[in-house]
Amino acid sequence: MKGQTDTLELFNIPSIKKEKNNGATVEQLRRLDFDGELKRKILPLCRLKKGDIWEDAKRGHRVGLLDATNSEDVLKIFGRKKAKLVVNDPPYNVAVGNANTSNLFKIKLNDYLEFSRQWVENAINIMDDNSHLYIWLGADYKDNFQPLPDFIILMRTFKELKPKNIITMRNQRGYGTLKNWMWVRQELLYYIKGNPQFNVEAEYTDIPKILRGYYKEVNGKITENLERSRSSFIRAGNVWVDIQQVFYRMEENVPGCYAQKPLKAIERIISSATSENDLVADFFAHAGTTLIAGEKLKRKVFTFDIDPIFAEITIRRLEHFRETGRTGWQWNNPFPELETQYDKGQKWI
Ligand SMILES: C[S@@+](CC[C@H](N)C(=O)[O-])C[C@H]1O[C@@H](n2cnc3c(N)ncnc32)[C@H](O)[C@@H]1O
């Protein structure tokens, strides 16, 4: 794992101080939410202008440069189409890596809740009568666990939505870790609208069952729980322990994207909530993870980001996946047009 302090790890930010530039394992892009030279160079390479929508000729995916809080923007990309599943991953209202940027902002809690209310309303409007809504959110223990509890209370005001579960992503560097303890949680809030189907088969992990000894008499014979099970593997349950946070040694890593979610988590959600060709929505595209998961599983995805660089990366990630079969760039660069330069000992463009 990369060795930098707490949140830098969680949000996939390359370690600047400790990582030696040996040419092999150094992430090739700095955090793209920082303004400045890097953004200035990349912006001309971005094909979408504000309000634009790119339509994929092959599967009909759409990627927009749009604002999740703007109802007209949301209607523009969805039209009359309704999503069977929304997987949204808004900024968590923490200053990631101690930097407050326009993409990952930390604002007053009331303003954050107003931002949340607007995008949730827009999400409800494009949800099918029977559909699922998953929301990634964090709780900052340095700031009284905001915004998780506040957001949950806000969700009570949306009468169309019924809460189903809170899933916790196991934090490899959480409780009990001696060094580099990560203090930001990642929870997955799960709500439904109407009465959607849930495919429980999608919830099996590849972790074998180990607990035995629950006896029950079946047809006059005493049976043990493993004999009665539908599977010899455990279900994911509400603490997902089998999913690795993305970091730069993984194939799916997208350099420059500090808040990328693991593909495996989104694939699990999509498989449990939808069928082939169903429409999946993601209002906060960033590294385009939901789009890649949808492409792999033959679903259609409409997604967008407010930042032209992340909208561009989302489109490029799909193109790159189709060309190479790779889900990310690992430590290669999604913008090879730019020449390589060096800054503070770290390779960047
Ligand atoms: C936490 S990241 C999403 C990560 C994504 N799930 C992934 O796996 O790559 C949040 C993203 O929301 C975008 N964003 C912030 N405000 C937005 C808004 N009002 N509308 C759309 N996108 C927004 C940011 O630019 C950032 O890329």
Tell me what you see in this structure.
The protein has one domain (about 5-349): Vaccinia Virus protein VP39 (Rossmann fold). Helix 3 runs parallel beside helix 4 and helix 4 packs across helix 5 (about 150-155). A nine-stranded mixed β-sheet has the order 1-2-15-14-3-4-8-7-13, sandwiched between helices. Strands 5-6 form a two-stranded antiparallel ribbon. Helix content is about 25%, strand content about 20%. By secondary structure, the protein is an alpha/beta fold. The protein starts with 5 loop residues before the first helix and ends with a strand. The protein is built from nine helices and 17 strands. The model is unreliable at about 1-25 and about 345-349 (pLDDT under 50). The structure holds S-adenosylmethionine. S-adenosylmethionine binds next to loops. S-adenosylmethionine binds near residues 91, 103, 283, 284 and 289.
Helical segment count: 9
Low-confidence stretches: 1-25, 344-349
Question: How confident is the prediction overall: mean pLDDT?
Answer: 85
Strand neighbour order, sheet with most strands: 1-2-15-14-3-4-8-7-13
Structural class: alpha/beta
Label the overall shape: globular
What is the highest CATH level, the class? Alpha Beta
Name the bound molecules.
Answer: S-adenosylmethionine
Instruction: Count structural domains.
Output: 1
Q: What is the CATH-assigned architecture?
A: 3-Layer(aba) Sandwich
Following the backbone from N to C, one meets helices and strands in this order, namely HHEEHEHEEEHEEEEEHEEHEHEHEE
Q: What is the third-level CATH name, the topology?
A: Rossmann fold
Distance between the termini: 23 Å
Number of strands: 17
Rg, Å, rounded: 21 Å
Largest sheet: 9 strands, mixed
Q: How much helix, percentage-wise, in residues?
A: 10-25%
